[in-house]
Design brief:
Blueprint: E1 4-7, H1 13-27, E2 34-36, E3 43-48, E4 51-57, E5 67-71, E6 77-80, E7 91-97, E8 100-105, E9 114-119, E10 125-132, E11 142-148, E12 151-156, H2 165-171, E13 175-176, E14 183-186, E15 192-198, E16 201-202, E17 210-214, E18 217-221, E19 225-228
Parallel strand pairs: 13-16
Antiparallel strand pairs: 1-7, 2-3, 3-4, 4-5, 5-6, 7-8, 8-9, 9-10, 10-11, 11-12, 14-15, 15-19, 17-18, 18-19
Length: 229
C-alpha cells in the first residue's frame, strides 16, 4: 500500500487527544491486543496482554505534563515525560504503511519526537523512538532508542541538544552523505526488523519528518529511522 499520511489539526490538548486516539484506534489494531481510551481522560493505553506497551498522555492542557512511554514485557521502558513549553508535544503527523505505523510531532529542534511501531522477524512488537529527554526546557537533548517488546534493545545513541537537524541527526547516528544506507534495527535478544531501518549514511538527514524514496521504495523518515511503505 502507499504511505497513508494523516495531519492532526487540533490546536488544544483535548482536540489533539481526540484526533490521535481515534487514529490509533483505527490503525494500531495489528500491533496491540487492546487500545484503551478511557472516558473522561486524555490518555491512550495500547496493551499486549496485560502490559501497557505504549501509552500517550496529554495531561489536561498545554501547560501541564504530557508524556509518552513504550514498555517491554520485562518492564524496561523508553519514556519522555516532563513539562513541555506550548505546543511542543502536540502530535501532528500519523503515518500508516504495510509495515508499521508512526506518529511525529511538529518540531525540527531537539524537542523532535517520533515513534515508529512495527514487528520484528519473529512477528513481535518492536519500537524505534526519537525523543527529547531532559528536565531542562531550555536545553533538551534528542535521543534515539530501540525497544523490542521481549527485551530492552541494546542501542541508545548519544543525546544532542543541537537545533540544527543535520548536526543533531549525525550525533543520533546518521551521517550526511550523497547516498542513503538502510540497516535493519536489532535487539539484544537477537531479533531484527528490516521494516524499520537506521540510516548510518543519509542524503536526507536534514529532514525531521516526511517521506523519502530510496531506489523506488518509499519510507517514512525522521532523519535517523525509516519505516518502509
Amino acid at each position: 500500500m502507499a504511505i497513508e499520511t494523516t495531519y492532526f489539526t487540533g490546536t488544544t490538548a483535548a482536540a489533539n487527544y481526540a484526533e490521535v486516539s481515534a487514529w490509533l484506534t483505527a490503525n494500531a489494531v495489528d500491533y496491540f491486543d487492546t487500545i484503551d481510551v478511557p472516558s473522561g481522560g486524555q490518555e491512550v493505553s495500547c496493551k499486549v496482554g496485560d502490559v501497557t506497551a505504549f501509552k500517550l498522555d496529554w495531561g489536561t492542557d498545554y501547560d501541564t505534563q504530557r508524556s509518552f512511554q513504550v514498555t517491554a514485557k520485562n518492564g524496561a521502558n523508553i519514556n519522555s515525560g516532563y513539562r513541555y513549553v506550548h505546543n511542543k508535544c502536540c502530535w501532528r503527523y500519523g503515518y500508516k504503511t504495510d509495515n508499521g505505523i508512526a506518529i511525529c510531532n511538529n518540531q525540527t529542534n531537539a524537542f523532535q519526537s517520533s515513534i515508529f511501531i512495527s514487528k520484528d522477524n519473529n512477528g513481535d512488537l518492536i519500537f524505534a523512538v526519537l525523543k527529547p529527554d531532559s528536565p531542562n526546557l531550555n536545553s533538551p537533548s534528542n535521543w534515539a532508542e530501540f525497544l523490542d517488546f521481549n527485551s530492552l534493545a541494546s542501542i541508545k545513541t548519544e543525546g544532542s541538544n543541537n537545533s540544527d537537524p543535520l548536526a543533531r541527526h549525525r550525533i543520533n547516528g546518521a551521517l550526511s552523505a550523497s547516498m542513503t544506507a538502510l540497516v535493519p534495527i536489532v535487539s539484544d535478544v537477537k531479533t531484527y526488523c528490516d521494516k524499520v531501518v537506521t540510516t548510518p549514511f543519509s542524503q536526507y538527514s536534514n529532514l525531521c519528518w516526511g517521506t523519502i524514496d530510496i531506489s523506488g521504495t518509499k519510507y517514512v523518515y525522521n532523519g535517523v529511522f525509516a519505516l518502509k511503505e
